[in-house]
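Prompt: Have a read of the protein record below and flag anything odd:
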Amino acid sequence: MTPLRLALPKGRILDEVAAIFGRAGYDLSPALGDSRRLQHDCGPLRVLVVRGADVPTYVAHGAADLGVAGSDVLDEEGRDLYEPLDLGVGRCQMIVAEPAARRERAAMHVRYATKYPRTTKAYLQRRGLTAEVIKLSGSIELGPLTGLCDRIVDITQTGETLRQNGLAIIDTVAEVSSRLVVNPAALKLAGPALAEVLERLGAAVAAG
């Protein structure tokens, strides 16, 4: 039987996701560790280890049948994917922060820096706010410290990095966690094999 292709994100979250699959009866240990290989055969699954931001792309274009991605990435990408399960790991918040000792600036000139421009624009629209949105790829906290922006939209677990850089949270945009996503076409093509994976994962998550 042709293995199902599963796209998983690199980094710390990989171990947490592998533990859930392990409880569901799928041994993903070949995909863990420091191996330079990016494809790993794990029984009925072929694991593709990719950047977290690329998981939705692999799944949407059919290069992977299913994958795991943060809800922050999924919301920003806005792709048409089936999202059957919240895995309950990788929990954090997407927040708005600004310098704790903020200098006042006319509202029409407020600038936001973020890795999530699409999500930030949607947030501003919901709040009825008009602002400039600047896309950054990393070190978002540096933006307000250098005068690049007034506020940032970023994800945080504890807020410690924000505090160390003199930033204070002023609003929450969304609660974030890792989600299982499936290519809609794969639901038809993979049929029972994919349905079994979804059922077993759902039971593993429910059992904790």
